[in-house]
Amino acid sequence: MTSPKMTSPAQPRVQVGNLWFDAVTEREVIDTVSEAWAAGRGGSIIPVNVDVARMASRHPGLAELVATGSLVVADGMPLVWAARAGGQTLPERVTGSALVFSLSEAAAADGRSVFLLGGADGVPDKAAEALRMRFPGLRVAGTDSPPLGFDSTPEGVQRALAIVVAAAPDLVLVGLGFPRQEKLIEELRRVWPGAWYLACGGGIPMAAGISRRAAPLVQRLGLEWVHRLALEPRRLARRYLRDDLPFAIELLGRTAMRRFTRQRSEPAG
After folding, report:
1. In 17-109, which ranges are E strands?
2. What is the CATH number of domain 13-212?
3. What is the pLDDT of residues 205-246, one digit of tens each?
4. Domain residue spans in the chain?
5. At a CB cut-off of 8 Å and minimum separation 6, what does 263 contact?
6. Binning pLDDT at 50, 70 and 90, where does residue 2 land?
């Protein structure tokens, strides 16, 4: 397991399962990126939902991949609840889809450019236009909808890297799904280290208006997965109901039990 890396005394890292998360709000993520832009530093943001946490719990290599993120944030209320059950604090859920908008807004305000990578043909272009309309002044450095399986060959990866480097963006939104997007981000950071990268999953189609998020109240209650299940039952039922839900329940129980055991072992007074 990778040891915790402290970003600052005000931003501790919290362990949930075998992953470490930055205990930050969405606003603090934006401030961190803006400060890094001003200082000429790049980085990456890895939002982790329950599905990603489940896969990382079974494959140490995936946990190591998550740990490469400059900021690792909890994109799932069960992870926030599990931290609290273990006596720790993650201040809020920070989703990749929300960061697509808030980081683009920050980029527009700071005069920075954004590149959108991932999604079906035409989707990144549609998302870019929607973001430009929403945040006047936003500079779109480019978009790319790479062909299916492009990252399974060195040539396909090199093509994607070359397109991004040629565009010279400050922010790259990478929506390829876990762990493909995280692996590509690490490659991108090597060749274009001054940018910030967001592993945003389905955030690009959401920005394009092709898929929609649940109502804010549903999000706060941690029930956005129910909303998504209702929209795509055939695709998501197995993942959410058979795989992720039992894992989330087990994780909550395990962290609560660990806290209870620790408290009982501590000397009184």
Report:
1. 19-22, 43-48, 71-74
2. 3.40.50.2300
3. 999 998 776 677 666 667 776 667 677 777 777 877 788 888
4. 13-212, 220-265
5. none
6. very low
